[in-house]
Amino acid sequence: MSLLEIKNLSIHFVTRYSDVHAVNGVDLTIEEGKTLGLVGETGAGKTTTALGILRLIQKPQGRYESGEIIFKGKDLLKATDDEMRSVRGNEISMIFQDPMTALNPILTVGDQIAEVIHLHGKCSQAEANERAVKMLEMVGIRAERAGEYPHQFSGGMKQRVVIAMALACNPSLLIADEPTTALDVTIQAQVLEMMADLKKGRGTAMLLITHDLGIVAENCDDVAIMYAGEVIEYGTLERIFHNPKHPYTLGLFGSIPSLDKDEERLHPIEGLMPDPAALPAGCKFHDRCAYATDECASCEQELAEMESGHKVRCARVMKGEI
Amino acid sequence: MGELIRVEHLKKYFNTPGGKLHAVDDVSFVINEGDTLGVVGESGCGKSTLGRTVLKLIEPTDGKIFYKGRDITDITEKENKQLRKKMQIIFQDPYSSLNPRKTVSELIADPLKAFHMLDKAGRAQKVAQLMDVVGLSQRFANSYPHELDGGRRQRIGVARALSLDPEFIVCDEPVSALDVSIQAQILNLLQDLQRDRGLTYIFVTHDLSVVRHISTDILVMYIGAMVEKCGAKDLFKAPLHPYTKGLLSAIPVPNIDHVREKVKLQGELTSPIEPKDECRFIARCPYATEACKQHMPEFQEVAPNHFVACHNVKTINNM
Ligand SMILES: Nc1ncnc2c1ncn2[C@@H]1O[C@H](COP(=O)(O)OP(=O)(O)OP(=O)(O)O)[C@@H](O)[C@H]1O
Ligand SMILES: Nc1ncnc2c1ncn2[C@@H]1O[C@H](COP(=O)(O)OP(=O)(O)OP(=O)(O)O)[C@@H](O)[C@H]1O
Ligand SMILES: [Mg+2]
Ligand SMILES: [Mg+2]
Questions:
Q1: Separation between Cα atoms, residue B230 and residue B224, nearest integer Å
Q2: DSSP readout, A134-151?
Q3: Which of A157, A268, A272 sits opposite B188 (nearest CB)?
Q4: Where are the beta strands (DSSP E) in chain A?
Q5: What are the pLDDT digits (tens) for A198-220?
Q6: Of A90, A170, B47, B76, which is most buried, counting CB atoms within 10 Å of its CB?
Q7: If phi over 0 gives left and psi between -120 and 50 gives alpha, with beta otherwise, what is residue B297?
Q8: What is the number of the ligand 2 atom nearest to the C-alpha of B272?
Q9: A59: Cβ below 6 Å to ligand 1?
């Protein structure tokens, strides 16, 4: 049994003025201890998917239109609020996109971590304090700094505190939403390496959201590429990097300047992702796709299995035409 | 081609409660016409301050700036304004650098108006032409910036910078806020403009694959100071400074067959306020020796067009 299995998840934000189709029929699977990379550009629906798993979608606009989120054999969409509270923090924890907002400026970093442990860990305050300091040391922050406030820390250190907090209750799944986007590459490398070590030591599975294919290459076991609320390609790291198939995935790879090859010009995908409040019929990518036919503009595409461990949402690829 | 920009021993120190902050510390370089100097380094190392000081948007503390051989360090306000036409800047954040109450066409016409160039009809024509050049459809002429996506907003920034027909543009992280596919569109645009108009760029970024792609030469900065400078491709082939080695090997590469030797940099940046007269990289350097504590290393040419500031550059690289 997989640790997490998302089936046909759809989340819309409905207001008087618009109906945003943020997540549309997403299927994802995460195995115990493995890391799934979720890649896609701004507005693709990555954060909404993550918040959806934790049932943190903003109400009342945010609505689950369909789906199941099977975590350890139980559907989280059917769980009670009490059950969800115990899942969050204890079993699944999340590192948010902006590390700076995740910390409380008026509490010392030690107290913040202790609070999380105390809340979820059913242990005494003294024990919680002790474990908080241990967590800090684990992420490479000296024990004597536990009494300092977030503003006394650099960006990289703050992010390490956030990671310590997320791992404090030994979750089986960590959702990390662009955990290093705000950091410099050298600090990013330190943080990612530390996360990988901690994960390995504890067997934690991870959903790693990023738009950096380099980070995916170095940290993930499987990859899902999202576009306009849909997963358009899904596979093992090996398949996606050696044999990408969907024209959008190919476009993403063509947009990144190479570090060892010399190329005069980049080969970006022209145009923009469609507005999720006004998605086109047919393939959501057809108006930017060099291979699109009339059929692509009218027929819904299915995420179909090409080969074991590799799925693509493109009829033309499936027919072997591309 | 001839020399367009020359900077000699440029310094910019800011006064802070803790003492002088060395944002730019003794930086020198030459950029030839039509070339791009890429400037890289970690957050706070002085990249933006360098770009702005070269444009004289900030007064230098010390040092000289030459434009086509002419010393522009101490020119009058009036001369400075004339020079502004030739030297422009494109900012990272197209969101905050554009007035939200102006339409796209008003925003692009702004610099022309400020310099009293062209009449109303002439300006309208020029704006339409600039929108074409940067790939903004005319239907956005009356839109407001918040109605546009980041890529289009950055195109407005590019159109504004081009409006006075400059020769030199400082691009300060122009694509950092954009998605890769949009980033690639803007990079292609900047390269096309450079080729068609013979533009010269300083390109500030922390994205190393971008800087390699777009630059002729690359300058690596660390806490205000130059640590390495050479041709763009050479820097990636054979970085000589330990900081550059660490920086380059920290980039995650989107290639799973690419096994690279990693030079790990521990620790974080030291403070740029009143730094000691020693190598500024000493706290993170795996090769530091006694000599590194004695004084700051000189920036020397160790191979043709390859400059490094490191006491131990020869031993580290078996030279
Ligand atoms: N509370 C909300 N109300 C209305 N629309 C929303 C809300 N939250 C998200 N959306 C919309 O849903 C879509 C998906 O947003 P989401 O934040 O999931 O994207 P993302 O892939 O995480 O993007 P980014 O890379 O910018 O973080 C976007 O169009 C966004 O504007
Ligand atoms: N007006 C100012 N007053 C005081 N200090 C300043 C001022 N402007 C910049 N600094 C300081 O100068 C140093 C260099 O800043 P600068 O913005 O040039 O860095 P940068 O390399 O562009 O960083 P980033 O990658 O984050 O944009 C920093 O330590 C910054 O805090
Ligand atoms: Mg997001
Ligand atoms: Mg800057």
A1: 18
A2: HHHHHTT--GGGGGS-GG
A3: A268
A4: 4-14, 19-30, 35-39, 62-71, 74-75, 92-95, 173-177, 205-210, 222-227, 230-236, 304-307, 310-312
A5: 889 889 999 999 989 999 999 99
A6: B47
A7: beta
A8: 29
A9: no
Residues A133-142 have pLDDT tens digits of 988 988 888 8
* Full-model pTM: 0.91
Query: Is residue B10 within 8 Å of B63, Cβ to Cβ?
Result: yes
pLDDT for position A157: 85
Task: Show residues of chain B in contact with A252, CB under 8 Å.
Answer: 180-181
- The CA–CA distances, whole Å, from A90 to A55, A114, A129, A258, B93 equal 15, 14, 17, 41, 38
Amino acid code (one letter) for B100 = P
Domain ranges (residues) in chain B: 3-86+166-259, 100-165
Query: Hey, is the C-beta of B187 within 8 angstroms of any chain A C-beta?
Result: yes
Instruction: Give the tokens for residue B136.
Output: 């903004």
- B156-184 confidence digits (pLDDT tens): 999 999 999 999 999 999 988 788 888 89
- How far is B241 from chain A, CA to nearest CA, in Å? 15
What is the value of ipTM here, to two decimals?
A: 0.86
Take residue A20 and report the two structure tokens written for it: 């945003």
* Domain B3-86+166-259: assigned CATH number: 3.40.50.300
CA distance B207 to A224: 24
Handedness of CA B305, B248, B46, A256 (dihedral sign): positive
How far apart (Å, rounded) are the C-alpha atoms in residues A171 and B290? Answer: 46
